[in-house]
Amino acid sequence: MRELDYGGAVLFTISAVLILIGVVYTTTLPSSDPHVIGTLVPGFVLLVVFALYETFMPLKQPLTPTRVFRRGHGRELTAPFIAAAVVTANYYGINVVWPTMINVFFTDATTDIHHAVVLTLPANLGLLFGAVLLSFFGTKIGHWRWTLTGSVAIMVLFGALLALGNPNRFGMMTAFVFLGQVGFGWAQYLSIAYVQFGTDQVELGIAGGLAGVARFAGGAIAISVYTTVLTNSQSKSAAELIPAAATAAGLSPDAVPALIAAMPLGADALAKVPGITSEIIAAAFAAFKQTYVVGLRTTALTSLAFGIVGIIACFCCQDISPKMNKKIEVFLENDVNAEKNKFH
Q1: Would you list the DSSP string of 260-312?
Q2: How far apart are CA 194 and CA 84, in angstroms?
Q3: Residue 252 CA, distance from chain mean position
Q4: What angle do CA 9, 15, 21 make, to 5 degrees?
Q5: How large is the angle between the packed helices 144-160 and 121-141, nearest 10 degrees?
Q6: pLDDT at 336 over 70
Q7: Dihedral over alpha carbons 302, 305, 311, 317 (to 10 degrees)
Q8: Computed over its alpha carbons, how large is the radius of gyration of the chain?
Q9: Per-residue DSSP letters for 185-222?
């Protein structure tokens, strides 16, 4: 227990928390606000300190041994680690955009709950189908680096194409979500295998832990970025589109703040807005949907930035075909082959 890297764990945890808090702050505060700067700057500084600490401190059990990241000039573990993080990041992109589309574009207060549940199936079935395809055809196809690159490219492409979404494109969005999740289902499990093949047999614990860090860190960063982008872009668009639509339909500019405040509260609150009519309400809610068209388009295109990094990382990975064999590294000690074990 004394040899564990407590210092590295503390540095990484504090830096990650500060960075995520700073990103989330930007949903309500301008990027120049002291609260944003005061969390992001120390967070990134501590992250650099963590990297230096892991590199130069004489640790017996470092949290992230730098030697494993240097294996194969970074192609054995570092590139797969980045790819695994990006795969999870793009998964969260789809899972921010699609549920929001369901809630804003394709359902309303009168929608049957069973229909709303059915709308969640394309994403889940796509993920399952992709994983099943990998299980049945991964070994037969081989060429693991190229199938990883291809599956990530499919996920990234159809995740970015969700930027075309609007209330009139239900079928198109359903197909894109399904296909994007098929790519994720294949890429997720293969990327994990890639990370775990990135170290020696005796360091599988480190590889497994890093595979988890890649997924959870990638997911945490991505969900913070996506929600920030969606909130900021939708709010900015709402400040422009809703007043313009309401006044064009006949509402007095003085009543616009009351309309915006009443929209989330329902029909009773809307009825109290001075000069309100059914035409104004319809125009305002049409504009409201359009603000999400803008916000979701920006969010989906943001996922493309993550995805390009992931595709480049996949190209940099080594081919793991020589390792995908029936060789058993460790036998049970009560097995007839126990004497073959290097360590007992």
Answers
A1: HHHGGG-HHHHHTSTT--HHHHHHHHHHHHHHHHHHHHHHHHHHHHHHHHHHH
A2: 9
A3: 42
A4: 130
A5: 160
A6: no
A7: -120
A8: 25
A9: HHHHHHHHHHHHTTS-GGGHHHHHHHHHHHHHHHHHHH
The pTM is what? 0.83
If you write DSSP's letter for every residue of 41-90 in order, what string do you get?
Answer: HHHHHHHHHHHHHHHHS--SB-SS-HHHHHGGGGTTTHHHHHHHHHHHHH
CB burial of 55-65 (b: ≥16 within 10 Å; e: otherwise) equals: eeeebeebbbb
| Torsions phi, psi for 109 (to 5 deg) | -65, -20
- Decide: residue 140, CB within 10 A, 0-12 exposed, 13-18 middle, 19+ buried: exposed
C-alpha span between 289 and 245 (Å, rounded): 12
CA distance 110 to 288: 18
| pLDDT in the model for residue 341 | 65
d(CA 209, CA 199): 12
| Tens digits of residue pLDDT in 190-230 | 998 888 887 777 677 777 777 777 887 788 788 888 988 99
125 contacts 225 by C-beta, under 8 angstroms:
no
What's the maximum distance between 2 C-alpha atoms anywhere in the chain?
88
Asked if residue 43 lies in contact with residue 15, where contact means CB atoms within 8 angstroms, the answer is: yes
First to last CA, the chain: 22
Task: State whether residue 4 is helix, strand or coil.
Answer: strand
Query: In this structure, are residues 211 and 64 in contact, taking their beta carbons and an 8 Å threshold?
Result: no
